[in-house]
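In response to reviewer comment 3 from the previous cycle, which asked for concrete evidence that the modeling workflow produces usable outputs, we include below a single protein chain processed end to end. The sequence was submitted unchanged, and the resulting structure tokens are shown without manual editing.
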Amino acid sequence: MFESAELGHSIEKTVYDQEVPALREALLDAQYDLASARKVPVVILIAGVDGAGKSATVNTLNEWMDPRHILTHGLSDPSDEELERPHMWRFWRQLPPKGKLGIFDGSWYSWAILEAAHGRIKGARLDQSLEQIRRFEQMLIDEGALVLKFWMHLSKQAQKKRLKKLEGDPLTRWRVTDRDWKHFEMYDTFRDVAERALRNTSTAEAPWIVVEAADPRYQKLTVGRTLLERLRARIDEPAPRAPVVHAPAPAPSIDGVNILHSLDLTRKVEKAEYEKELEKWQGRLNLLTRHKAFKDHNVVLVFEGADAAGKGGSIRRITQAIDARLCEITPIAAPTEEERAQPYLWRFWRRLPRKGRFAIFDRSWYGRVLVERVEGFCTEADWMRAYGEICDFEDQMARSGTIVAKFWLAISKEEQLRRFNERQESKFKRFKITDEDWRNREKWDAYEAAICDMLDRTSTEIAPWTLVESEDKFYGRLKILRTLCARVEAAL
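The workflow returned the following structure tokens.
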């Protein structure tokens, strides 16, 4: 894959000086068209061997274009804050919104390549990491992003020459470190790992572009021309048609079994027993958060359910039991303008907690396969692929030490009507009922079908759904507390 990038391509200075002004003008025009349309985010990865001029290329792009519409990220070792979240958290937070370019000097490939080159992960683990990256990039593309990946390549001889030249100049000596020379000694190993990584992740939608970096002028012109070509092609293409779904929608139940209908909604707890049990389980939860091992974990709680099913009351019984400084509650409503400019999972990734803390979501990322599906806010292709994207998201959380607990609060249609009427008649509960709640009620059957599909496709061993019979609020709250305590205890 790298052979064609070792052919000795070069550009004369006079040719370079002649071509750059027109290229810069065209890049600026494309950048402003991109910014005014605000329909496409552009993700640019600048990766490659040490000493291959990656940072210089990034600086050149910022010089040639308007840096106000460019978000540049120079990524090195992760910070303590980043190490307390899933590995991809730091990259999700830095994704560019629609209309802007995000340039990554270093990327989500760096860890996998370094770990494999040093022998800390073997073939199968490397392949798993690369497959996770491939799915991540495919999700960005499906969400409308333009992903450009440049690998700056130097032959072993050219890398040695470049490092010696930088080290020999007092003005650039600081650019060369002991780590660079150590990696040079491992050149052949790094080349093998990098070639494997590039081959496994070069796709039709996001191919790797290998750029010979021995001549900086050739390198910069190649990157600039390629960026212009891809930008202009994307901006000028006609509005995309709705994607064709090649997989059938979830099959309806042929035996008539509905998991929600199988719940026993008559379960009840008397008030006296409830108050006694509430004190017991809240106390146990509090002690678990003070366990010495809890600092190595965090907790993400998802509360979904029918309108008026008691999500808010259940959340309050949890927050009463734990230190308020350890907990953040995020109520999820329609996305803001800032959130609509990003992939739909972005607003949830950025809310993931540090170690030793709770993040509670009152409604969640499951809106993509529930309200967005039923109300037609996304295409069938969008919600069909979301099942896999959501499972990936939760898998990454669990692998990083997050305890993921998901609760579906179930009530009958008749009980919901009773609670709606009660809320409308109560002066201090009127804010809890909206016109949208009544509209959603009219689509009860459609929502029920979507819920059953969601439970079937996203209840996994590491992040199972707990179905909570909430016709009696006392029973439902106790079941949630017991389940949560059991999940935390199992993790500790």
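The chain has a mean pLDDT of 91. We consider this sufficient to address the reviewer's concern, and the full set will be provided in the supplementary archive.
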